[in-house]
Structure formats: structure tokens, C-alpha cells
Amino acid sequence: MYSSIQNLHDDLKAKKVSSKEVIQNYITKIEESDSKLNCFITKTFDQALKQAEVVDQKISKGEELGLLEGAPFSIKDMFCTKGVRTTAGSRMLENFIPPYSSTVNKRLDAAGAIMLGKVNQDEFAMGSSNETSYFGPSFNPWDVSKVPGGSSGASAASVAARMSLCSMGTDTGGSIRQPAHFCGTVGFKPTYGRVSRYGVVAFASSLDQAGPLSLRVEDAFRVVQSISGKDMMDNTSSDKAVPDWVSEAKSFNGSLKGKRVGFIKEYAETDVDPEIKEAFEKSLKVLKDAGAEVKEVSIPLIKHGVSVYYLVATSEAASNLSRYDGVRYGFRAEVEDAAKGMSLDDFYAKTRSQGFGEEVKRRILLGNFALSSGYYDAYYNKSCQVRRMIKSEYETAFKDVDFILSPVSATQAFGVNERVQDPLKMFLNDFFTVSVNLAGLPGITVPVMKASNGLPCGVQLIANQYDESHLLQGALTLENEFKFYEEVPSV
Ligand code: GLN
């Protein structure tokens, strides 16, 4: 098993191994471990082996390899894949086979990535533990009695367990960064607009952003470099030039001299698990020792981040999910003979009651409430105003610092069934991640250490919009020190 695409490419080019052998090894690992982890909803092994043959032909002809050539990927089931079932973790889309692929998938294909299958997630990406999936929970490879996090939980678990070298996830309020922290992988959410959302099942369109999970920082940037850039199919995608981060990573000399790293006062005042604090403090020291100047910044409105996020995200979700009506596509409730004459409204209600799970229904109800007349100004509008203010507080902070270090979550991975009955507690879990989405900023989780209970602990770096290069430098500095990719769970 590999821990980086570069190592894989070195071996492929030196003909130490063929692409087909590599893919076969990953398939064997999935067959061995996935019964314990429940990551894969749909496997695409035949297609993967065929693609590997093409890679091997390219190598034998001495052709140039793409940035992701031959890299085995798992893909969160939020990404539409032409001809391959795409469920979003929901009964509503249990049998949905998209007639087209997401822009992300097309660009991954163009860069040579090989898809091993579609992986589990919280239903419609709503959740922080993978427990809201219609296909049952996935489990944490470091301790299967714990959740892998969510909503891209199986993306993180499949990478940590070496069932795939990289994975694609989506992050609306932390869904790439939090599972990366729980499973000990890198998880990178780019700036909102870097990556096209075309063909990604919509949760909350002003917050959703796709990004990778990987073992190494450079791989995460390799993936984002391959999938970023303007897409005519998504008018929120940015036409900003995409930097050559792979070259930047190679030429980074390890020094942060002249850089300023911030920590957020309001986060520093928040109670977190002692080992989360330890991971944070160790990381701050590493950045400081590399030459960065440490500064305190203040984002006073961050304390309202979770409230604002759960109003904005549920409002957008209520609107986005109205398309699942049992008429156009997706699940349709059976109508017994006696009910054949039922009204259209009753038919919708029946379909949506059966097709959606509890958490999704809760979000739709909350969102429709916040959007309804009489409450719109007090809830939805107000939350949009506070959102803008949070963004401007971050803008002020980034006048003083180049990037910010913060925890990802107040705890390590929690137990399966421990919080799923307490939605408020689950929501509060997102305190350290949601404001990054509200402000459209890039954020990355870097794994740092194993806590005394054997579970990984990561930290988060946050930068200004389109300034992912600073994240790269900070993240590489941490990775060079902690080398968490050398730790392998025994699952
Ligand atoms: N945990 C958050 C939620 O449930 C974030 C989910 C996400 O980023 N997709 O909404």
C-alpha cells in the first residue's frame, strides 16, 4: 500500500509494480477490511482494473503520466458518476443511476485517477458521524466502536484503512475536515468557488465545496490542482488562476520566516479535551520553531457560527431537497389500490416520509420554518447578515496573519450511538469548522498525534480566500514534524 502518489509514480515508472497489481492489492484490502468498516456502497472494481490496464499501456509506451495517474480513489456518494449508482446515502436515491458525471469526476478521470467505488456518508451529507446513512453507519478504523466522523466519514475511513490512497469528499460545515481529524488523515476544503459543484448532489449551495482526503499533504493539493478552475456548468466556480501547488510543495524549504500564524481568542477560551489542546499547542510550537510569528486574532461573532450555519444550511437544504418529489426521479412510494385517488400533496408526503431519514426531515422542517413568512426576517435574513459580519471579521484578522491554527473538534472520535439521539449535541460538535464555510475560506486538517485512547488528533489551518498556498506551507511544516502517515491502523 502506498502513502503518496509520488511514491506510487516512482514505482510505476521504475516498473517495480504494474498499475494493475496496485489496483488488485487495493481491491484485496477492501475485500479484507470493508466487512468491518462498511465504507463501500457500490464497488467498481472491473472498471478500475480496465483503467489500470490503460495506465500500464501508457507506461510501456513511455508516455507522460497525469498528476493522478493510476491513483486508487474512493468517491463519496454525493458525486454523480455516469452509469454508476449515486445514492447520497439516502433511500431517496437508492437506485439512482446518473446519466452524466460531475465535473470533479471528469477532471479526476482526465488526470488519470482510478475510482474503486462509491463510499458511504451521512444522508445528503447531513450529519457528523456517518450514522444518518440509509446504508448503515461506517466505522472508525482505529477503533470500530467509534464513528469515523461525517459526513465524509467513509472517505476518511477508507483512506486511513489503506483501502484507497485518496478520496473525494464534500464539506458544507466541516464534512471533510472533521472526519479527517477523527480518522487521522489529511482533509482539504478549498476556497468556495475553487472547485465546480456541477454534478455534486446539492445540500446547501452557498456552502458546499468538494475536496480530497489523503494521507499526505502534497496529494491533497495535487487533487485540488487537478479539479480546480472555472467550469461553465457552475457559475459560482471561480476563474482565478490555479497555482502549481505540486511545484510549490516540492520547492518549499521548510522555513516560515516572515509568516504570521494566528490563533483565535474565542477558540482559545473554549473548553476542549486536554489532548486536543495538546495537539494544538504542539502544532503551534512547530510553526513557531519554523520561524512563524504567533499572533492572537479575534472573531467575536464566531460564537454565533453554529446558529447561523444551521439556519443558512437548513434553509438552503429545504429548497434544494424539494426536487425529490417521487415524480421526476428517485424513490416513489407505493400507492395501494385503496389510495389510488389520493391527492398530489398526499402522494408527495408519502414519498418524502418514506424516502428521507429522520435527520433529513428535521433539516427540511427547520429550513422551511426559517424561510416561512413571519419568520424569514427574524431567522433567515438575520443569519445571512451575521454571516456577512463573520466574513468581514475574518477579513480583518487576515490583515494581521497569513494563516490561522485551530482545533477541528473539541474531542476525538466519539462512540457509535453515543450522540445520534441528541441532535443539538451533534450540531454543537461543528463549532470549530462551520465558520470557515460561512466565510468561504479554505481549511485543511493535518493529523498530528495519537491520543492516549489510540485515536488520532488533528489540527486545522485556515487561510484567506484563494490563499491556499499559505495552507500548503503550514500543513507541510506540520507533516514534516509529525509524519502521521507512518501510523497504520490494524483493521
Ligand atoms: N456536520 C455538519 C452538518 O451536519 C456539516 C455537514 C457537512 O459539511 N456536509 O450539517
Provide a quick synopsis of the model:
The chain is an alpha/beta fold.
CATH superfamily of the largest domain: Amidase signature (AS) domain
End-to-end Cα distance, whole Å, is 14 Å
Strand content: 5-15%
Count helical runs.
17
In this entry the ligands are: glutamine
Q: Oligomeric status of the shown chains?
A: single chain
The number of E-state strands comes to 11
What's the arrangement of strands in the largest beta sheet? 1-3-2-4-6-5-10-11-9-7-8
What would CATH call the architecture of the largest domain?
Answer: Alpha-Beta Complex
Shape: globular
How many structurally independent domains? Answer: 2
CATH topology of the largest domain: Amidase signature (AS) enzymes
Helical amount: 40-55%
Structural class: alpha/beta
Low-confidence stretches: none
Tell me the series of helices and strands, N- to C-terminal: HHEHEHEHEHEEHHEHHEHHHHEHHEEH
CATH domain class name of the largest domain: Alpha Beta
Largest beta-sheet characterization: 11 strands, mixed
Mean pLDDT: 97
Radius of gyration: 22 Å
Show the helix and strand layout:
Blueprint: H1 5-13, H2 19-37, E1 40-43, H3 45-60, E2 72-76, H4 103-110, E3 114-119, H5 153-160, E4 166-171, H6 177-183, E5 186-189, E6 209-214, H7 217-227, H8 245-251, E7 260-264, H9 265-268, H10 274-289, E8 293-297, H11 305-320, H12 344-355, H13 358-371, H14 377-400, E9 403-407, H15 423-428, H16 434-438, E10 443-450, E11 456-463, H17 468-482
Parallel strand pairs: 2-3, 2-4, 7-8, 7-9
Antiparallel strand pairs: 1-3, 4-6, 5-6, 5-10, 9-11, 10-11
Helix pairs in contact: 2-3, 5-6, 11-13, 11-14
Bound molecules: glutamine.
